[in-house]
Recover the amino acids of this structure.
Protein backbone atom coordinates (compact mmCIF):
# COMPACT_ATOMS: atom_id res chain seq x y z
CA UNK A 1 0.00 0.00 0.00
CA UNK A 2 1.20 3.55 -0.63
CA UNK A 3 1.46 4.32 3.08
CA UNK A 4 4.61 5.82 4.55
CA UNK A 5 3.63 6.81 8.08
CA UNK A 6 6.44 9.38 8.23
CA UNK A 7 4.92 11.29 5.31
CA UNK A 8 1.27 11.13 6.38
CA UNK A 9 -0.19 13.90 8.52
CA UNK A 10 -3.78 13.88 7.24
CA UNK A 11 -5.86 10.89 6.19
CA UNK A 12 -9.21 11.36 4.45
CA UNK A 13 -11.60 8.50 5.14
CA UNK A 14 -14.29 8.79 2.48
CA UNK A 15 -17.30 6.89 1.26
CA UNK A 16 -20.65 5.45 2.24
CA UNK A 17 -19.03 2.36 3.77
CA UNK A 18 -16.33 4.16 5.75
CA UNK A 19 -18.36 4.46 8.93
CA UNK A 20 -20.52 1.33 8.91
CA UNK A 21 -19.93 -2.25 9.99
CA UNK A 22 -20.79 -4.77 7.28
CA UNK A 23 -20.48 -8.37 8.42
CA UNK A 24 -22.42 -10.14 5.68
CA UNK A 25 -25.99 -11.20 5.25
CA UNK A 26 -25.47 -14.62 6.75
CA UNK A 27 -23.86 -13.52 9.99
CA UNK A 28 -25.78 -15.41 12.70
CA UNK A 29 -25.60 -12.75 15.40
CA UNK A 30 -24.56 -9.19 15.97
CA UNK A 31 -20.81 -9.10 16.54
CA UNK A 32 -18.83 -6.24 18.01
CA UNK A 33 -16.81 -4.71 15.22
CA UNK A 34 -15.14 -1.42 14.35
CA UNK A 35 -15.70 0.68 11.26
CA UNK A 36 -12.77 1.59 9.04
CA UNK A 37 -13.10 5.20 10.16
CA UNK A 38 -13.07 4.28 13.86
CA UNK A 39 -10.23 1.81 13.38
CA UNK A 40 -8.03 4.48 11.78
CA UNK A 41 -9.02 7.03 14.43
CA UNK A 42 -8.04 4.52 17.13
CA UNK A 43 -4.79 3.68 15.38
CA UNK A 44 -3.67 7.30 15.16
CA UNK A 45 -5.29 8.75 18.33
CA UNK A 46 -2.03 9.45 20.17
CA UNK A 47 -0.10 10.71 17.14
CA UNK A 48 0.07 13.89 15.12
CA UNK A 49 -1.89 12.24 12.27
CA UNK A 50 -5.37 13.64 11.66
CA UNK A 51 -8.12 11.30 10.46
CA UNK A 52 -10.86 13.28 8.69
CA UNK A 53 -14.14 11.91 7.35
CA UNK A 54 -16.66 12.63 4.61
CA UNK A 55 -19.38 10.22 3.51
CA UNK A 56 -19.64 11.75 0.05
CA UNK A 57 -22.84 9.93 -0.90
CA UNK A 58 -25.23 7.20 0.15
CA UNK A 59 -25.64 3.84 -1.58
CA UNK A 60 -29.45 3.78 -1.28
CA UNK A 61 -32.11 6.03 0.21
CA UNK A 62 -32.51 3.43 2.94
CA UNK A 63 -29.63 4.21 5.27
CA UNK A 64 -29.71 1.26 7.64
CA UNK A 65 -26.27 -0.26 7.99
CA UNK A 66 -27.23 -3.53 9.59
CA UNK A 67 -28.93 -6.68 8.39
CA UNK A 68 -30.45 -6.90 11.84
CA UNK A 69 -32.31 -3.68 11.13
CA UNK A 70 -33.32 -4.68 7.57
CA UNK A 71 -34.07 -8.36 8.09
CA UNK A 72 -37.84 -7.97 8.18
CA UNK A 73 -38.15 -5.71 5.15
CA UNK A 74 -40.34 -7.81 2.85
CA UNK A 75 -41.69 -5.03 0.68
CA UNK A 76 -41.00 -1.46 -0.19
CA UNK A 77 -38.97 -0.32 -3.11
CA UNK A 78 -35.26 0.16 -2.55
CA UNK A 79 -34.20 3.38 -4.26
CA UNK A 80 -31.05 5.30 -5.04
CA UNK A 81 -30.70 9.06 -4.60
CA UNK A 82 -30.60 11.41 -7.61
CA UNK A 83 -27.13 12.83 -8.32
CA UNK A 84 -28.27 16.45 -7.93
CA UNK A 85 -29.20 15.69 -4.31
CA UNK A 86 -25.73 14.33 -3.52
CA UNK A 87 -23.42 16.49 -5.63
CA UNK A 88 -22.54 18.79 -2.72
CA UNK A 89 -21.52 15.81 -0.58
CA UNK A 90 -19.40 14.43 -3.42
CA UNK A 91 -17.75 17.83 -3.92
CA UNK A 92 -17.10 18.10 -0.15
CA UNK A 93 -15.44 14.67 -0.18
CA UNK A 94 -13.25 15.60 -3.16
CA UNK A 95 -12.21 18.85 -1.46
CA UNK A 96 -11.30 16.97 1.72
CA UNK A 97 -9.32 14.47 -0.36
CA UNK A 98 -7.34 17.30 -1.99
CA UNK A 99 -6.36 18.63 1.46
CA UNK A 100 -5.01 15.30 2.75
CA UNK A 101 -1.92 13.16 2.18
CA UNK A 102 -3.83 9.93 1.52
CA UNK A 103 -7.43 8.86 0.96
CA UNK A 104 -9.01 5.64 2.19
CA UNK A 105 -12.04 5.36 -0.09
CA UNK A 106 -14.68 2.87 1.14
CA UNK A 107 -17.29 1.93 -1.45
CA UNK A 108 -19.34 -1.11 -2.44
CA UNK A 109 -22.69 -2.47 -1.34
CA UNK A 110 -25.03 -2.35 1.62
CA UNK A 111 -27.55 -4.92 2.84
CA UNK A 112 -30.22 -3.61 0.51
CA UNK A 113 -28.12 -4.14 -2.62
CA UNK A 114 -26.91 -7.69 -2.04
CA UNK A 115 -30.03 -9.64 -1.11
CA UNK A 116 -31.75 -12.05 -3.38
CA UNK A 117 -34.71 -10.28 -4.98
CA UNK A 118 -36.73 -13.48 -5.05
CA UNK A 119 -37.17 -13.16 -1.29
CA UNK A 120 -37.37 -9.39 -0.92
CA UNK A 121 -39.65 -7.45 -3.22
CA UNK A 122 -38.17 -4.23 -4.57
CA UNK A 123 -34.65 -5.33 -3.70
CA UNK A 124 -31.60 -4.26 -5.70
CA UNK A 125 -29.75 -7.53 -4.99
CA UNK A 126 -30.51 -9.32 -8.27
CA UNK A 127 -29.46 -6.97 -11.04
CA UNK A 128 -28.33 -7.14 -14.63
CA UNK A 129 -25.52 -4.60 -14.08
CA UNK A 130 -22.43 -4.84 -11.90
CA UNK A 131 -21.48 -1.18 -11.38
CA UNK A 132 -21.33 0.46 -7.99
CA UNK A 133 -24.86 1.39 -6.93
CA UNK A 134 -26.07 4.97 -6.68
CA UNK A 135 -23.63 7.82 -7.16
CA UNK A 136 -20.54 5.98 -5.95
CA UNK A 137 -18.90 6.07 -9.41
CA UNK A 138 -19.14 9.88 -9.34
CA UNK A 139 -17.61 9.89 -5.87
CA UNK A 140 -14.78 7.60 -7.00
CA UNK A 141 -13.96 9.82 -9.98
CA UNK A 142 -14.11 13.05 -7.97
CA UNK A 143 -11.84 11.70 -5.22
CA UNK A 144 -9.30 10.24 -7.67
CA UNK A 145 -9.27 13.47 -9.66
CA UNK A 146 -8.25 15.31 -6.48
CA UNK A 147 -4.74 14.02 -7.15
CA UNK A 148 -4.25 12.58 -3.67
CA UNK A 149 -3.13 8.92 -3.51
CA UNK A 150 -6.14 6.63 -3.01
CA UNK A 151 -6.40 3.31 -1.22
CA UNK A 152 -9.79 1.90 -2.19
CA UNK A 153 -11.54 -0.53 0.15
CA UNK A 154 -14.28 -2.54 -1.55
CA UNK A 155 -16.96 -3.81 0.82
CA UNK A 156 -19.46 -5.90 -1.08
CA UNK A 157 -21.40 -9.11 -1.27
CA UNK A 158 -21.43 -9.66 -5.02
CA UNK A 159 -19.25 -9.12 -8.07
CA UNK A 160 -18.56 -5.51 -8.99
CA UNK A 161 -17.29 -3.80 -12.12
CA UNK A 162 -14.79 -1.18 -10.98
CA UNK A 163 -12.70 -0.54 -14.11
CA UNK A 164 -12.01 3.16 -13.46
CA UNK A 165 -11.13 2.48 -9.85
CA UNK A 166 -8.86 -0.43 -10.81
CA UNK A 167 -7.04 1.70 -13.39
CA UNK A 168 -6.65 4.81 -11.24
CA UNK A 169 -6.50 3.94 -7.52
CA UNK A 170 -3.06 3.48 -6.00
CA UNK A 171 -4.21 0.33 -4.19
CA UNK A 172 -7.38 -1.73 -3.77
CA UNK A 173 -8.23 -3.82 -0.73
CA UNK A 174 -11.04 -6.21 -1.60
Amino acid sequence: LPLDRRKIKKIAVVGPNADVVILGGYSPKKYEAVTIRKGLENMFKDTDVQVLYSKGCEITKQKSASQFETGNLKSGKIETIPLQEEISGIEEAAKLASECDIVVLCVGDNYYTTREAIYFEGNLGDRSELQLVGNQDYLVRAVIQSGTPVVAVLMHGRSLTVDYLAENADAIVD
Q: What stands out?
A: The helical segments are 36-43, 67-70, 83-98, 136-144, 163-168.
